[in-house]
Amino acid sequence: EAEVAQSPRYKITEKSQAVAFWCDPISGHATLYWYRQILGQGPELLVQFQDESVVDDSQLPKDRFSAERLKGVDSTLKIQPAELGDSAMYLCASSSGQPSGYTQYFGPGTRLTVL
Amino acid sequence: AQSVTQLGSHVSVSEGALVLLRCNYSSSVPPYLFWYVQYPNQGLQLLLKYTSAATLVKGINGFEAEFKKSETSFHLTKPSAHMSDAAEYFCAVTPWGGADGLTFGKGTHLIIQP
Fold first, then answer.
1. Which residues of A touch B97 (CB under 8 A)?
2. If pLDDT is split at 50, 70 and 90, which confidence band does A112 have?
3. Contact B43/A4, CB-based, under 8 Å?
4. Is A105 on the interface with B (CB under 8 A)?
5. What residue in B sits closest to A92 (Cα-Cα)?
């Protein structure tokens, strides 16, 4: 069964450093989402891509966060500089976008710890 | 605007007992509704979804949920709890059509007592 791949699974960094997370969606899925999940809470949408275009980045802290999906396939989420409050699980999800296929499938996540 | 409220951050049931996890939503347009399960340090796995077809939705692992528009609810149930059901459960909503990002509740931690 196809899965969403994410790497790394765990990342520890010091504040003010740059970090990057990678996501490879299920093959053929045009829509890709990045969510942030703070410990003890539900995920919150950061950014949504349709192919290579950003559809919604209203909740992305653009002063320090950036996201790209250059060829409309895999995606990278970057934080620079990292702050203590960025410690969280970063989840990537994808969906096919077909009328019967808007279900979002999630990857295993990247757990970020900022020291 | 839309939101999800999950009543009870922790629910404890005995093995073999009925599981009931509550979810109420607020949406200005007809919603799609989802239940996801999350095991420690893992991503989210879809249990079931409501997309305006049948109001009683059956999912994986014996779970089901009923969409009640009049009550704006989408409660998750399972007739008989198993130890392996212990996990975090999230209810989520997105506007009809399903193309937008999901808005999640805060989650309910299900504890199964032996």
1. 102
2. very high
3. yes
4. yes
5. B43
Query: Residue B93 is which amino acid?
Result: V
Among A7-11, A60-64, B10-14, B39-43, name the one with the lowest average pLDDT: B39-43
Q: CB–CB of B99 and A31 under 8 A? A: yes
> pLDDT of A43-73, one tens digit each?
999 999 999 999 999 999 999 999 999 888 9
pLDDT higher than 90, residue B111: yes
| SS3 label, residue A86 | helix
For A93, the token pair is 């999800």
Q: Which residues contact A15 (CB under 8 A, 6 or more apart)?
A: A81, A82, A83, A84, A114, A115
Nearest CA in chain A to B43: A108
C-alpha to C-alpha distance for B63 and B20, rounded to whole angstroms? 10
Q: Cβ–Cβ of A97/B99 closer than 8 Å? A: yes
Record: contact B105-A43, CB cut-off 8 A:
no
Q: Average the pLDDT over B31-43 and give the result.
A: 91
